[in-house]
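Follow-up to my post from last week.
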Amino acid sequence: MIKFLAVVKREYLQRVRAKMFIVTTILLPVAMSFFALVPILVINIKTPAVRVAVVDQTGKLYDPLRRSLGSDESEQAGANDARPQGRPGLTSFVLEEINAQNQSIDQLRDNLNQRLRARQIDGYMILPPDFLEHGQAEFFNNNPGDVFAQPTLQSALGRAVREQRLIEAKVDNKTRAHLFQPVDLQAVKIGDTGGQERNSGDTFAVVFGIGFLMYLSILMYGQIVLGAVIEEKETRIAEILFSSVRPFPLMMGKLVGVSLVALTQLTIWGLAFSAFALFGVNLLASRGVTSFSIPHIPISHFLYFGLFFLLGYFIYATIYALVGSMVTTAQEGGQLAMPIIVMLVVSFYLFLPVSRSPDSPFSFWVSMIPFSAPVAMVVRIVTHTPPFWQIALSLLIGFSSVLVIMWMASRVYRVGMLMYGKRASIPEAWRWARQA
Amino acid sequence: MAASETTIRLDRVSKSFGEFTAVRELSLDVRAGRVFGLLGPNGAGKTTTIRMIVNITAPDSGSITLFGRTIDPALQDRIGYLPEERGLYRRMRVVDQLRFFAELKNVRGKHVESKIDEWLARVKLSEWKNKRSMELSKGMQQKIQFITSVIHDPDLLILDEPFSGLDPINTELLKEIVLELKRAGKTVIFSTHQMEVAERVCDDICLLNRSQKVLDGSLREIKRSFGRNSVAVRCEGGDGVLDDPELVSKLVRHADEAQVLLAPGANAQTLLKRLMDSGAVIGKFEMVEPSLNDIFITKVTESA
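User reply:
Got it. Predicted complex:
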C-alpha cells in the first residue's frame, strides 16, 4: 500500500507542480472564452445597409416587401433617404422603388447595371408581372459572397407574396394576422411519481454537457495516461521499478495519480465557471433579463452523473494505459490511440438513438457495455430512469472492466519491458497477458 | 560451509522465452558477505538469472531460495538492484527521486532524509540535491542511480555492469563503496562481461556461457587449479621460439611484453632454455597466474 501511494503521490505531485499544468489550467478557460466571445463581437460589427433597387412589375409587392423587411422603421423615423441604423447581427436593407412604367425592361436593366458598377446600389431585384402566380424572380448583385442578404430577401419576399395572395383571396386583416401567429409546443415530462415537470430541452443539454465533458477530459488526459505509462520505458526506469513494486499496483498508482490531476484541474475550472456563471446570471438578472433557467434535476441524478462520468473517464483512460503498455514510444502510442477516439465518438453519438427510445432492448444493452454505458445510461436516467438494479449492474460491469483492463495492461507492460524495444502486436499482447 | 551463510541458492533453475532457452539447469550458491561475480559474454543469461532472483520473472522450473526463504515479492525490499538498463525521471529533483525509490522499498520517514544526505555526500553530489536529474552529467546520474539501489540499506546488492561508462576516479569510488558494503556483511552480486573488472572485485565467480554454467567457485581456487602455466616475457629476438606450437598454445603481445600460455605438456624451463639458446636477450621472464580472461576463453572454447 505504501508503494501504491508512493506511485500515486509521485504521479500527482510531478504533474501538478509542472509549469504546463499551471499554464493550461489558466490558459484553457481564457482561450475558451476568447473563442466564445469573438464570434459574438465580430457578428456585432455594424455593416452598412445593403442598397437594393426593386423593379416591381406586379405593382403590388413593393410596400409589403418593405414592411416585411422591417425597413419601414426608418420611414417612421421620418427620414426617407437617411440610412437606417444597422441592427446588430442582421443585414439591413435600404430599398428603392424603380418605376417600370415608361421604360422597357432592357433599358431598365442597362440603367441599373450602370448604377451597380458605379456602386450607387448593391443590387437590384426584378419582380416580373406574373411573379404572384409563379413566384420566380431574380436578384442581381455584385457581391455573391454576402451569404446573408439573399436568404433574408427571399424570406421577406415570401412573406410579402403570401400576404398579397391572401389579400387577393379576400381574407380580412384579422384572419391574416391570425394565420401568421406562431404556435408554441411545450414538451412536458410525466414523472414516475405522477407529477408533471416542464422539460424544454434542458435534459438534452445536461446529457450533452456531461457527454461533452467526458469526451474532452478523455481526449486531454488519455494522452497523459499514455505518456505516464510510456515514461518509464523511455527513461529506462521500468526495470528498477519492477524490482521494487508489483506491476498491478504500479499501473493502478499511475492511473489514479493522473486521474487526481485531472480532477484537480476540472475542479478548478468548475469552480471558476460556477463563479463566473453566478456572477453573469446576477448581472443579467440585475438588468432585468432572466431567460436563463436552471434545469430541474433530482439530486440523486447528480450522484449518478458523477459516477458515470468517473466510469467513462476510467474506462477510456485504462484503454490508453493498455495501449501505453504495448508500445515503446509516445509516437507509436499516438497512432494506436486512434481507434480509441473513434470508439469514443461512436459511443457519444449513441445518445441520439437512446434518447429516442430509452427503454428499448438496444438501449438496455448499450447502457451495459462499459464503453458506451457512461453516455447511454446517463441519457436513460435523464429521460426515463431505469430500475435501480440496471444502474447498479451497469456500474458494476463498468468498474470491473476497469480492473480487468488494468490487470491486463500491467501484465503486458511487464513482459513488454523484458523484451526490449519490441512493440507488441495484439495477439502477442494477449499471450503476454496470459503467460507473464 | 553452513547453510545460514548462503544468501541465495539456485537449484536447477531454467527459463525460456518461447523457443529460446535463456537459462538452463543453473544451480549456484551465493555466500553471505562476499562479492559474487556473475560473468559471461553478452547473451549468456546473466540478466535473466538476476531478474529471477529479484522476482521480476519467475523460473519455468527449479527453485530459488533467498535468505533461507523461497522467493516472494516481500523479499524484494531486502534487495537493491542496479540494472544494466537504468535511468532516472528526467524532470524530478534528485532528492525527490531518492525519496521515491526508498518509498518503493517500504522505507520512509526522517531517517530517509539523513540517509539521502549521507549518500549524496559519499558520492560528492551534495550540492546537486535539489537539481533536476536532466541537469546532471551522465556520470553523476549513474552515481545517483547507484544510490537508488542502496538507499534502503539492502542485505543483497545486485549490480549489473555498474561501472560501464564511468571514468576511472568514479569507478574507484564505487568500487570502494562496494567493498565497504561487503565488509559490513552485505552480499553483493556483480554481473559483468569485463573480466579485468571482476578479477579485481570478486571473491567468488560463476561463469555462464550460452545459458549454462561453465565454471564456478572461489576465484582464488579456480586460478590455483588452472596452475601456473602462464608466463610474462619481455625479450628481444627469439620470435621463432614463441611461435612454436609445441611450446606455446597462445601468445598475446602487449606494448613491451608478451603473455604466453604454455602448451599442454610444455614447461617453463624448456621455454626459457630454448629462448636463451636462440640468442634472445631476456628482460623479464615471470611465471604468472592465468588471467580470468584466459580461463574464460579456455573454458568457453572447451565447452563449445
